[in-house]
């Protein structure tokens, strides 16, 4: 990985902002991901994110912290917050912005236990594939303290397969429709493509039940997105 995401965050933080990240998937055309949005304050966050942050309690793990927006807000109210990201540049920026505890680490490398685990900005994306969901859920289950919660958001992207007449065209022989190949580029360079999973709520609920976890729909967003709460 070239860590173009981290480089973009560092450029913005260091006042070298000249262009945005560009993203695309195997079913969508290239689009801009504005760097200022990756440094948003609480008031600029979508209502699902705001709701999740208001629900936080106890010892908190911020998974995929990026530039540290969620952790920085939570530090105003909580003392025990750990943030992790697999982007070296993101970890550097989060530290520079004042996140107290941030590490370059993947979720599967975490061993501590928490009262709240946050997976936001399509938190199911970290699962990558439908096949890997049980592995991640079982690991997350082991990271929860008694009475703990996982707050995770995603979207049902079935709408992206609709035609003008409202019909849905999905290849039943292909992988799950929410399992995409994700492409990112920045300043003329392209990142190694990765798998990214948009998991609809019904399937998330089914996977949780199989892992002896309780899944609750907290709130739905304006565009097929949702926030869920998972508990033991």
Lateral arrangement of strands in the main beta sheet: 5-4-3-6-7-12-11
Low-confidence stretches: none
Structural class: alpha/beta
How much is the average pLDDT? 95
C-alpha end-to-end distance: 35 Å
Largest sheet features: 7 strands, mixed
Number-wise, the strands total 12
Please characterize this protein's 3D structure.
- By secondary structure, this protein is an alpha/beta fold.
- It is 24% helix and 30% strand.
- The chain has 6 helices and 12 strands.
- It has helices at residues 4-13, 47-55, 69-74, 88-97, 133-142, 201-210; strands spanning 21-25, 28-33, 60-63, 81-85, 102-104, 114-119, 144-155, 179-186, 189-190, 194-197, 214-220, 225-231.
- Strands 5-4-3-6-7-12-11 form a 7-stranded mixed sheet, with helices on both faces. Strands 1, 2, 8, 9 and 10 form a 5-stranded antiparallel sheet that branches.
- α1 (4-13) packs parallel to α4 (88-97).
- The longest helix has 10 residues, at 4-13.
- The chain is globular and about 50 Å long.
- It starts with a helix and ends with a strand.
């Amino acid at each position: 990985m070239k860590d173009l995401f981290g480089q973009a965050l560092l450029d913005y933080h260091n006042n070298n902002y000249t262009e945005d990240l560009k993203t695309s998937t195997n079913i969508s055309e290239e689009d801009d991901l504005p760097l200022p949005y990756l440094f948003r304050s609480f008031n600029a966050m979508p209502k699902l994110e705001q709701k999740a942050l208001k629900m936080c309690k106890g010892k908190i793990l911020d998974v995929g912290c990026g530039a540290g927006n969620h952790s920085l807000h939570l530090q105003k109210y909580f003392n025990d917050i750990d943030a992790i990201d697999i982007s070296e540049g993101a970890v550097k920026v989060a530290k520079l912005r004042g996140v107290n505890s941030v590490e370059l680490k993947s979720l599967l490398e975490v061993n501590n236990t928490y009262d709240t685990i946050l997976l936001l900005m399509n938190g199911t994306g970290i699962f990558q594939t439908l096949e890997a969901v049980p592995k991640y859920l079982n690991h997350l289950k082991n990271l929860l303290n008694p009475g703990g919660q996982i707050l995770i958001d995603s979207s049902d992207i079935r709408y992206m397969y609709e035609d003008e007449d409202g019909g849905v065209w999905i290849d039943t022989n292909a992988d799950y429709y929410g399992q995409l190949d994700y492409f990112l580029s920045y300043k003329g360079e392209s990142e190694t493509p990765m798998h990214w999973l948009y998991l609809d709520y019904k399937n998330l609920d089914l996977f949780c039940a199989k892992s002896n976890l309780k899944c609750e729909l907290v709130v739905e967003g304006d565009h097929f997105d949702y926030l869920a709460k998972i508990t033991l």
